[in-house]
Amino acid sequence: MSDAQPMIEVSGLSKSYGHIRALDGVGFEVPRGEVLGFLGPNGAGKTTTMKILTCFIAPTEGQVKVAGHDVGQNPLEVRRKVGYLPENAPLYRDMRVGEYLDFVGRVRGMEPEARRRGAARVVDHCGLGDVIDQEIRTLSKGFRQRAGLAQAMIHDPEILILDEPTSGLDPNQIAEIRELIREIGRERTVILSTHHLTEVQAVAGRVLIINRGRLVADGRPGEIGGDRGGAVYRVVLRPMDGGFAAAAEAFAAIPGTRGFEEEPAVGGKELVLTLRGDGSSDLRAAIFEAAVARGFTLLELGLKKVDLEAVFRRLTMEGGEPPGRSTEEVK
Questions:
Q1: pLDDT at residue 218 above 80?
Q2: What is the CA radius of gyration of the chain?
Q3: How confident is the model at residue 3 (pLDDT cuts 50, 70, 90)?
Q4: Statement to judge: residues 202 and 59 lie in one domain
């Protein structure tokens, strides 16, 4: 397959459960080597999309291709190309970690030597070496998630689909799993389905937002949503005549700025500003050019955060929940 061909192609995807429309005309593509964050509130259709991509359920309408294979016409080839970690990892708790990975390999039809190599690779990749002989029921939730990731990767898939991979973990475990996902994303195409905004900002290079079964946004975390959200920049200058007022006047002329705040600086050796942008574009180059033009000494310039939460809330709260749709019935 050519590198130019998307790893995942979705067109006109719809899914109905009786009178409930879980997905309604969804379409997107995912290129090779991208980490895609798939965002949406509970009941938006994220899990339904994941189950269709992994051939657990069939679409009502539309076309879905994974690694060039149609999910309806060639599901076995799709499953060979995809590793899937559902929200509740499919673990056999009475098995030891090593036994479980060997079992998963046998279920996937892998030969003994391929199973041995695959298990050794994922045990190393997922940091399971110290617990390889432990029963899964004795593991912490973080290590159980690692075991779930390992089973999804044992056959060395080109695509990894993760549904709420940090659900129920403590902050330290979340940080560990996120770092693991970042490492995986350097080698594979990854779709990360979640409703946690920080998760997407930490690991994803692109974001899709789904609401009530429809895609409502598609773009990079720093750009998505246009004027619905915004970005916050930290600007550190050497103190100069006019101070904060002079800096605010200079930067106010930059298209896309929303306002300024002065932050406290230790010992008066720096002038620190928070500049808010509307999110329509990255303002760092314009801030740099404005500082140079006014003769300011720029000591530091960085994007502090993208207000993805504001984007998400606006896109997913407009219009409310349609009649007949239940978040318990539709995921």
A1: yes
A2: 23
A3: low
A4: yes
Tell me how far apart the alpha carbons of residues 154 and 149 are, in angstroms, rounded to a whole number. Answer: 9
CATH number for the domain including 244?
A: 3.30.70.260
Q: Which DSSP symbol is given to 96?
A: B
Domain limits at 174? Answer: 8-219
Residues 99 and 156 in one domain: yes
Which of 192, 219, 246 is the endpoint of a domain?
219
Q: Closest by alpha carbon to 177, among 165, 162, 188?
A: 165
Give the CATH number for residue 171. Answer: 3.40.50.300
Q: How far is CA 268 from CA 99, 236, 238, 260, 325, in A?
A: 62, 12, 9, 19, 57
Q: Is residue 319 part of a domain?
A: no
pLDDT at 23 over 60: yes
Q: Is residue 258 part of a domain?
A: yes
Q: Is the residue at 325 inside a domain?
A: no
Residue 320 has a pLDDT of: 42
Let me know whether 243 and 213 are in one domain: no
Chain mean position to CA 280: 21
Q: What is the pLDDT of residues 91-150, one digit of tens each?
A: 999 999 999 999 999 999 999 999 999 999 999 989 999 999 999 999 998 899 999 999
**Residue 289, phi then psi, degrees to nearest 5:** -65, -40
Give the contacts of 122 (CB within 8 A, at least 6 positions apart).
101, 128, 149, 150, 151, 153, 154
Show Cβ contacts of residue 33 under 8 Å, excluding neighbours closer than 6 positions: 185, 188, 189
- The overall pTM is greater than 0.85: no
The total domain count for the chain is: 2
- Per residue in 177-196, pLDDT (tens digit) is 888 888 888 888 999 988 77
User: With contact defined as beta carbons under 8 Å apart, do 49 and 26 qualify?
Assistant: yes
- CA-closest candidate to residue 279, choices 310, 252, 238, 317: 310
Crossing angle of the two packed helices 97-107 and 141-153, in degrees rounded to 10: 30
- Provide, rounded to the nearest whole percent, the portion of the chain with pLDDT above 70: 89
Residue 163: how many other CB atoms lie within 10 Å: 23
pLDDT higher than threshold 90 for residue 237: yes
How far is it, in rounded angstroms, from Cα 44 to Cα 330? Answer: 7
β-pair partners for 71? none
